[in-house]
From TrEMBL:
It is found in: Cytoplasm; Golgi apparatus. SMART domains: CRAL_TRIO_N (SM01100), SEC14 (SM00516). GO terms for molecular function: RIG-I binding. The keyword Phosphoprotein applies. Residues 1-154 form the PRELI/MSF1 domain. Keywords: Cytoplasm, Golgi apparatus, Immunity, Innate immunity, Phosphoprotein, Signal transduction inhibitor. Pfam families: CRAL_TRIO (PF00650), CRAL_TRIO_N (PF03765), PRELI (PF04707). It comes from Sagittarius serpentarius. GO terms for biological process: innate immune response; negative regulation of RIG-I signaling pathway. The keyword Metal-binding does not apply. This is SEC14-like protein 1. Interacts with RIGI (via tandem CARD domain); the interaction is direct. Interacts (via GOLD domain) with SLC18A3; the interaction is direct. Interacts with SLC5A7 (via GOLD domain); the interaction is direct. Residues 500-653 form the GOLD domain. The gene is Sec14l1_0.
Length: 694
């Protein structure tokens, strides 16, 4: 039955084809080994496939049938990306030692991701998703081919017998194999030492609670009122996990509703639920999350520019949270607050959601354990795909998924623009499958028709900005003024540290003392990316290439190579004796950047070696009609403070294998969205306002 899935199997759509590479049969026909190269169409985002440069992945599978021992061993490993990702799988079909009518099946696999173009977490989630779905479908497929054999009249395969008359019996050795029958195990088998880990049927495993024990009962009215419908098995899981916490956990014991969320998130597998719940409780204690609503006040920037807030409830009584994501300046919020404060605010929203669920449970007289989120994407465009902002969003999603499972009852996404699929491709792999099923996405004004908002929210509370009559007090968002931006040093000094990584670095640029960053490139066609803001003064941005490494900057803060200041560091790498054109070369045209401008861009490297990003003080040229210096220039030469510029920058190198030639050299561009309003807009009107999107 197993062999019938080759060379291809209609029940496994991702299994496109297979070719036999090697085959061996012993003379007595007891051993049959066949090795195949299998072609798979992995269900991965198109963007990831494009970056990886492949449409299909190849695995090598080796099947070893031993008719003498009555075993079938299946080994598989990946051929594609084997230098980056190592996947090994082993399956085994054996005969149960106590009942020859039973076939045991065992399966194990390992995944080791060394590197994958910066998408390691995404690949891990895709691999786990594929592996889980394959396990679930494995039994269905084998039963399909068994039925096919029965329809052909094949219900029995005679045992192998040696060709010679003399048969050697090995009945003296009774070494037991781990067994995994998919049906009930006789009592005798349990008595003889089969443990729960050896039995696939987890419902009969001793580690799982069995319903009906005297202490595993909750009051029926309590369950109906606060927890909802529970089977005896689910009720027993809840009781046992709570008892275990009371016996072992020294901190605050969560309420039954919260424990139940973790059990539901792991399909009531008590071991898995206990693991993630313990991790979450430790995390809550470390970061004092239980006290966040009482002890932490959101900064005024969040109260003014974070376009989200609570708004009544939906038709099921769930608290309703409204988020106007398209109106939010995500870059400005990250730059003004840092990731830590932004994450803490999201956590406070989730804690408030838990509190509102408890209140609504009392008000409506039925269990309400989750909330509904309405996300309006009107105004979403490519500026929201700012890379550090997306990274911050993914981290927030990971923290929320790990610590607030089963809290999202429904997510209504309205007015999704054309750019939404790009954002969805980046974000969706980080979202749990159960959570993803709760998403409803409406493009344009589809939410106003049948199956739209009115199916989930009463007409009286539809927000005014969506055409309803209810005034919504959610902030409208808008641009965060750059005057509120903070330096990396200021963000580092925050006492709230939910993570310690800082995206941006700050630097000071002086007349005659540019700031330079060294990037070593090993492979040609790598991509250097940058994103910086000119906080003070005007600068010239350059990129240079050198075949030899510059000398490391001197530590003497009074020397010409290194200047330290409270507002940022200053490093010079290009030696005074170096000559342009001989020791190093310019690879991009100089870019003049005015105070208050934001610049994003990339450069595809043509050669390996050392690349230097340089921010240089920009001196205004003297008037063309006279050789005399201008008054401003004379005054500037007398004031050292006016010789200082300040930038905040972020750089990253993407390896050449990430794009495989699908990217041409990208020029710098100015982001019109992040310009200073009113006071400094005039300085940037002559520049392009389009963000790079290819």
């Amino acid at each position: 039955a197993y062999e019938r899935r080759f060379p291809t199997c209609p029940l496994i759509p991702m299994f496109v084809a297979s070719d036999t590479v090697n085959e061996y049969k012993s003379e007595d026909e007891a051993i049959h080994v066949i090795e195949r190269r299998c072609k798979l169409d992995i269900d991965a985002p198109r963007l990831l496939k494009k970056i990886a440069g492949v449409d299909y992945v190849y695995f090598v599978q080796k099947n070893s049938l031993n008719r003498r021992e009555r075993t079938l061993h299946i080994e598989a490993y990946n051929e594609t990306f084997s230098n980056r990702v190592i996947i090994n799988e082993h399956c085994c079909y054996t005969v149960h030692p106590d009942n020859e009518d039973w076939t045991c099946f065992e399966q194990s696999a390992s995944l080791d991701i060394k590197s994958f173009f910066g998408f390691e977490s995404t690949v891990e989630k895709i691999a786990m998703k594929q592996y889980t779905s394959n396990i679930k479908k494995g039994k269905e497929i084998i039963e399909y081919y068994l039925k096919q054999l029965e329809e052909e009249g094949i219900t029995f395969v005679p045992r192998w017998t040696p060709p010679v008359a003399c048969k050697l019996e090995s009945s003296t050795s009774h070494t037991r194999r781990p067994v995994s029958p998919a049906i009930n195990i006789p009592d005798s088998a349990t008595k003889e030492g089969l443990n729960s880990k050896e039995i696939l049927n987890t419902s009969s495993s001793p580690s799982e609670p069995t319903a009906g024990t005297p202490d595993d009962k909750l009051d029926a009215d309590y369950i109906k009122r606060y927890l909802g419908d529970l089977t005896p098995m689910q009720e027993s899981c809840l009781i046992r996990l709570r008892q275990w916490l009371q016996e072992t956990h020294k901190g605050k014991i969560p309420k039954d509703e919260h424990i139940l969320r973790f059990l539901r998130a792991r399909d009531f597998n008590i071991d898995k639920a206990r693991e993630i719940l313990c991790q979450s409780l430790t995390w809550r204690k470390q970061h004092q999350v239980d006290y966040i609503l009482d002890t932490w006040n959101p900064p005024q920037v969040l109260q003014d520019y974070y376009a989200g807030g609570w708004h009544h409830h939906d038709k099921d009584g769930r608290p309703l949270y409204v988020l106007r994501l398209g109106q939010m300046d995500t870059k400005g919020l990250v730059r003004a607050l840092g990731e830590e404060a932004l994450l803490r605010y999201v956590l406070s929203i989730n804690e408030e959601g838990l509190r509102r669920c408890e209140e609504n449970t009392k008000v409506f007289g039925r269990p309400i354990s989750s909330w509904t989120c309405l996300v309006d994407l009107e105004g979403l465009n490519m500026r929201h795909l700012w890379r550090p902002g997306v990274k911050a969003l993914l981290r927030i999603i990971e923290v929320v998924e790990a610590n607030y499972p089963e809290t999202l009852g429904r997510l209504l996404i309205l007015r999704a623009p054309r750019v939404f699929p790009v954002l969805w491709t980046l974000v969706s792999p980080f979202i749990d499958d159960n959570t993803r099923k709760k998403f409803l996405i409406y493009a344009g004004n589809d939410y106003q028709g049948p199956g739209g908002l009115l199916d989930y929210i009463d007409k009286e509370i539809i927000p005014d900005f969506l055409g309803g009559e209810c005034m919504c007090e959610v902030p409208e968002g808008g641009l965060v003024p750059k005057s509120l931006y903070r330096t990396a040093e200021e963000l580092e000094n925050e006492d709230i540290k939910l993570w310690t990584e800082t995206i941006y670095q700050s630097a000071s640029v002086f007349k005659g003392a540019p700031h330079e960053v060294l990037i070593q490139i090993v492979d040609a066609s790598s991509v250097i990316t940058w994103d910086f803001d000119v906080c003070k003064g005007d600068i010239v941005f350059n990129i240079f290439h050198s075949k030899r490494a510059p000398q490391p900057p001197k530590k003497d803060s009074l020397g010409a190579h290194s200047i330290t200041s409270p507002g940022g560091n200053n490093v010079q790498l290009i030696d005074k004796v170096w000559q342009l054109g001989r020791d190093y070369s310019m690879v991009e045209s100089p870019l003049i950047c005015k105070e208050g401008e934001s610049v994003q861009g990339s450069h595809v490297t043509r050669w390996p070696g050392f690349y230097i990003l340089q921010w240089k003080f920009h001196s205004m040229p003297a008037c063309a009609t006279t050789s005399l210096p201008r008054v401003d220039d004379v005054l500037a030469s007398l004031q050292v403070s006016s010789h200082k510029c300040k930038v905040m920058y972020y750089t990253e190198v993407i390896g050449s294998e990430d794009f495989r030639g699908s990217m041409t050299s990208l020029e710098s561009s100015h982001s019109g969205f992040s310009q200073l309003s009113a006071a400094t807009t005039s300085s940037s009107q002559s520049h392009s306002s389009s963000m790079i999107s290819r």
